[in-house]
Amino acid sequence: EVQLQASGGGLAQTGGSLRLSCAASGFTLDDYAIGWFRQAPGKEREGVSYISSSDGSTYIADSVKRRFTISSDNAKNTVYLQMNSLKPEDTAVYYCAAGPYYRMGYRLSLDLHKYTFWGQGTGVTVSS
Question: What pLDDT is recorded for position 9?
Fold first, then answer.
């Protein structure tokens, strides 16, 4: 059974840091792109970052570039999102998702419709 579990969210102050984890089970990271998405209250879900273990490619959205970093630990079948210099606008529920390469096509993306499996999400609140 394919499962994703996001954790590590919580309350942080402006300028603080949080490390989110996405633990995968039922599949190996080699066959999927893993993406992080977030959804703030009243807003659409947006892509934040993705990583591909097969070719080592990563992508970070401009909105969080230079502040967030994505990484993976294949031995633990886990993907991390290190969030530094947090801002109040980072407040959202953060979701990790897995997209099989056959669905991704020739190029990876943060098109949420191409991600098949989703975790439950973990809430992040950044206070001013």
Answer: 98
